[in-house]
Model the fold of this input.
Amino acid sequence: MRLARAAVAEFLGTALLLAAVVGSGIMGERLAGGNTAIALLANSLATGGALVCLIAVFAPISGAHLNPAVSLADALRGGLSWRETPVYIGAQIAGAIVGVAAANVMFGLPLFFASHHVRSGGAQWFSEFLATFGLLAIIWGCARHRPAIVPFTVAAYIVAAYWFTSSTSFANPAVTIARSLTDTFSGIRPDDVAGFVAAQLLGALAATALFAWLAPQSGEASHDLA
Amino acid sequence: MRLARAAVAEFLGTALLLAAVVGSGIMGERLAGGNTAIALLANSLATGGALVCLIAVFAPISGAHLNPAVSLADALRGGLSWRETPVYIGAQIAGAIVGVAAANVMFGLPLFFASHHVRSGGAQWFSEFLATFGLLAIIWGCARHRPAIVPFTVAAYIVAAYWFTSSTSFANPAVTIARSLTDTFSGIRPDDVAGFVAAQLLGALAATALFAWLAPQSGEASHDLA
Amino acid sequence: MRLARAAVAEFLGTALLLAAVVGSGIMGERLAGGNTAIALLANSLATGGALVCLIAVFAPISGAHLNPAVSLADALRGGLSWRETPVYIGAQIAGAIVGVAAANVMFGLPLFFASHHVRSGGAQWFSEFLATFGLLAIIWGCARHRPAIVPFTVAAYIVAAYWFTSSTSFANPAVTIARSLTDTFSGIRPDDVAGFVAAQLLGALAATALFAWLAPQSGEASHDLA
Amino acid sequence: MRLARAAVAEFLGTALLLAAVVGSGIMGERLAGGNTAIALLANSLATGGALVCLIAVFAPISGAHLNPAVSLADALRGGLSWRETPVYIGAQIAGAIVGVAAANVMFGLPLFFASHHVRSGGAQWFSEFLATFGLLAIIWGCARHRPAIVPFTVAAYIVAAYWFTSSTSFANPAVTIARSLTDTFSGIRPDDVAGFVAAQLLGALAATALFAWLAPQSGEASHDLA
Done:
């Protein structure tokens, strides 16, 4: 029963996250009159606002991972069990896809339509590596010491990372897969998904390894890591 | 006496909320030089800022519902009594209308003048359903576990929802009724009010039902839910 | 000695507040390329950011009033003594004037030069009444129950009030006097100062009277009100 | 071992800070279509977001100074030992330089290329003096009383100071040195580094001396000052 609730929480949380990411991208681009910086400002602030509440709401139920890279890293450090891990990741990917559909419908677009937004090359992959490294550093650094501020630190980080990486910081394999299904502001060409996901997983691994030494007291972090 | 104070709190809080929503919409549009994204950025951030303080101030007095959908959902779950509920809703609607008048007067406009802003159709109604679903999810998910952060999570959510829904997330029947009385940036045509309110109530019901299962420990939430 | 420290805190805090308000107004206008909404966005966010830290830093020393309307209201409710009140107000006004000079110098402008920005008329006065009413409502509503969040609620309120009032919410007599001494974005014509200050004091009185009934437990608020 | 961890934390934290500052400056300028205010809005919000999480993550390990002026001031007040101080400062400068390289690479630019951005003159130096004075005032004022909010107050301060100083508030010698190595939005001409650093150190000293009297209870602040 607890796992069923956790799976629903991961599904619903990731769905609402994608609705926020994709929806605010569409709205931002429609209203910004061609100024991409203003569209990205709206997109990043809306994503941050959504993360604050989604993590606060779902952390007590499932840990509010909302991200396969987080669930995998947590499993590696002995938090999430290997039996629960595929349930979490499946719920996240399914939720992400449903969330993209919700955003598309809210703006009168087709349920799904493949993105043509090219996001590829070394600079983008390095950006995704660094973005996910930073995200996991925050999770391992904050989650044990000060779990109460994790909704705010993760949100603040993502707002920043939308701007300081050239890839606008997807930093989440479920988000990356789902964003290939909308040909709007926040989309990514299906061909480019694999490169992003690989870079994200490497970044998550690197941060998890480093923080096992740097902040060892967080070794016992349970899957209630947020 | 306690109910009288609560009614005044709901009246005053909703009035100040509407003054903030409508006033910042007018200011944003006047200054933005035709760039609607910049106007909505100002409008959303100002609404969020107002919510942080209004919820913090009025929660100890009335629970800071400021929203008939919240009061109804709370009554359904056994928080607010059915005797108090109409007092709350009446105070919210009256306050919302007075708040719109205050905004109109601050900007040298008529006390009331009906909006011509068309907001209708399936995509908009689905947006309002989802916006209110999310709002109630946050309230049921956070209010019991971490009441101290509710002012911040609700504000963060509304800033995000202004952007990720095509309706700019009214998510509040009192707000919807009152915003029909100003023909400015944040207005809604009187004919479109009923559709929005219906979608909002459905969204609130859906979230309340789901969270009764997903986060059952919040079942005893009193009307001090914020 | 405690009063000397409090006076220095009020002086320094109000000086830094005015440096932030006036300086960010100048920077915003210089960079915004004629789009006043973008300039006001920068101005309001910078003012909010400054308030968060100034209240957090100076509250333990002086209560971080930084505003004669707050000191007067606190004295009326028995917090600040009538002997300390003129010391506070004197320090605030002196600090505000020095802060404007600092901003002018940082941007290579004359130490002082009178503003030509007309801010007058009923709509503006009503705006200042409401802005200061709201500010004092937050102080009386939050300061006793949850002093730890006052830096954030006051900052959030001022960001919002810059946008939802037609006067951009001065809400502070010391700030109003000092802003007459800079002919830049945030200035006010010296002739218009008296009207603003009168409206502010009326708003502060109205909120103080209402909250004596609405939230009576805050009656004993000491001058450590933030 | 503890010092090794602290050095890695200062290195990594300052590297990520510079990646955020420089990267978001490049992104902001590329997307803003020539409107410098929008670029600076993105740059300031991204820097603030990064500071929130970096201070929260690294404070338990090293105090999260990320700034030679902070380490020196802390040593002067008996926090950081004089043996640790050069280790901290070395790690900060090395980290800052690596962070600039990371930002340059993320955006497909050369690893290092000297800035041509002139930042000089009395108004700029006074800005840096005041910016660093304010930063240290926040650290001495908040770090003892309320360490839990330091990530938020420092971030709020820096967002504000980007706007209210004419120098956009470097306020950090390691940041200043490193930003000379990128000819992008946030760069500074190598010739202008010394003047900025001198003004910053004077500002830090002035605030440290004043707060030794104004808030003497913070005299025992350890190097866990954040």
Remarks:
- Chain D has a mean pLDDT of 94.
- The CA atoms of residues 20 and 47 of chain D lie 6 Å apart.
- Helices of chain D lie at 2-31, 36-62, 68-76, 84-106, 122-142, 150-164, 173-179, 193-214.
- Chain D touches chain C through 41 residues (CB under 8 Å).
